[in-house]
Amino acid sequence: MFGKKPSQKYVISSADVEAALAHINSMPQMARKVMPGKWGFKILEDMLLASLPAKAKSGDCFCLGPGLWGHIRPLEGDFQNHPNSEHRLQVVVSIRSVLTSLDNLIVLN
Known about the structure:
Elements: E1 10-12, H1 14-26, H2 37-51, E2 61-65, E3 68-74, E4 89-95
Parallel strand pairs: 1-4
Antiparallel strand pairs: 2-3, 3-4
């Protein structure tokens, strides 16, 4: 009851991992065009853990790598009937695959 609070558990979908690895492999600076599966996953996992905020909470966003962002969401947020008694948080990956041209910016205000 008064013990140490268990550490937060984070999950990521295999589809997000595959999409992030495909994005990284498509980068022009990649010496190899394809990272081997397990090695690529380990690199991505290390990038994710290094960039994850220390006390990440639902709604937090962070830069994961070039053109990759992580968004913290409650696991049940997208899966209404999924039990989440462990209160796990999921990392959802956003990918920006286009190059930004500083000559073609649009002012929004």
